[in-house]
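User: Predict the structure for this protein chain, please.
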Amino acid sequence: MTRGTQMNQNQLSADIVERLVNLANRAAPEIDETMASVRRVMAKGEVVFGVWQDKSQPFGVGVRCVKGHNRLREISQGTEAKLRIVAIPCVEEAQAVALEQIEGDRVN
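Assistant: Here is the predicted structure, written as structure tokens:
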């Protein structure tokens, strides 16, 4: 996975997508119309995904890593780790992209 691109949905299993959707649904009540609430939720995770409904994607869900790209890269190279993962519900991919640009790795 590279920074600035949507995750390849074909690499995600239905189980992973379901878990991310569940995480996003659990985070939703904590998020109001302010960025402060989004930042509070994002601060809970080392890796943060934006999740939105997208009928064109497998399982009907779009997923984008918005924070923690380097951590995921380390793990993909064989480093074992336990991660705190958070998912943020997004309206569409553009919202996840904006979240990555505003609050992603370059900021944190």
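Helices lie at 14-27, 35-42, 69-76, 93-103.
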